[in-house]
Write a structure and sequence with these properties.
Keywords: Acyltransferase, Transferase
Radius of gyration: 16 Å
Strand content: 25-35%
CATH topology: Aminopeptidase
CATH superfamily: Gcn5-related N-acetyltransferase (GNAT)
Pfam families: Acetyltransf_1 (PF00583)
Number of domains: 1
CATH architecture: 3-Layer(aba) Sandwich
Number of strands: 7
CATH class: Alpha Beta
Order of helices and strands: EHHEEEHEHEE
Protein name: N-acetyltransferase family protein
Largest sheet: 7 strands, mixed
InterPro entries: Acyl_CoA_acyltransferase (IPR016181), GNAT_dom (IPR000182)
Structural class: alpha+beta
Shape: globular
Strand order of the largest sheet: 1-2-3-4-5-7-6
């Protein structure tokens, strides 16, 4: 078994992170995005904390990050999850390790709710989130069209922190 390392993402990781993101976009069931933004735009839209990468055998195999769902103060502890595992590394449990680490880091940073929007055809992502303690809180029917014009549903999955005021709550 290859040695697994989870560490904070750095700007130097972007070339591999963006390649993995493009692989996710190509599946047409990981995101509604049709192209990868430049690093500056991606960086501006995601929180500075809770950006992680997973390495398998020294190779960057996946990444995850958070972005705030709403800028208002009352929602400061609520963030949406982005998680992607490289095509050649899928199905080996790396997503579970990465999402578990993200959940722990988010609680340490003070987030009380993590949410994830999962496209209807992404059963693997729904199962991964459920395995990491996310629960299905809703289904949005015919909420968006894919690049082929097909209407799609999304599932909203949510994970609450173990404590009402997680460890880093006061920092937010």
């Amino acid at each position: 078994m290859d040695k697994i390392i989870i560490r904070p993402m750095t700007p130097e990781d972007w070339s591999t992170v963006s390649r993995i993101y493009v692989e996710g976009i190509a599946t047409e069931y990981a995101t509604f995005q049709t192209e990868c933004p430049p690093y500056t735009a991606w960086d501006a839209s995601h929180t500075k904390e809770c950006r992680l990468v997973i390495l398998s055998g020294g190779v960057l195999a996946g990444w995850c990050a958070l972005h705030r769902v709403d800028p208002r103060w009352c929602y400061r502890g609520v963030a949406e999850v982005s998680i992607y595992v490289g095509e050649q590394f899928r199905g080996h449990g790396l997503g579970f390790q990465l999402l578990s680490a993200l959940c722990a880091a988010a609680e340490k940073a003070g987030y009380w709710t993590l949410q994830s929007t999962v496209l209807q055809d992404n059963a693997a992502s729904r199962a991964l989130h459920a395995k990491c303690g996310f629960r299905l809180v809703g289904r949005r029917e015919r909420i968006a069209r894919d690049c082929h014009g097909r209407w799609l549903d999304t599932y909203l999955m949510e994970r609450r922190a173990a404590a009402d005021e997680p460890e880093g709550f006061k920092k937010l």
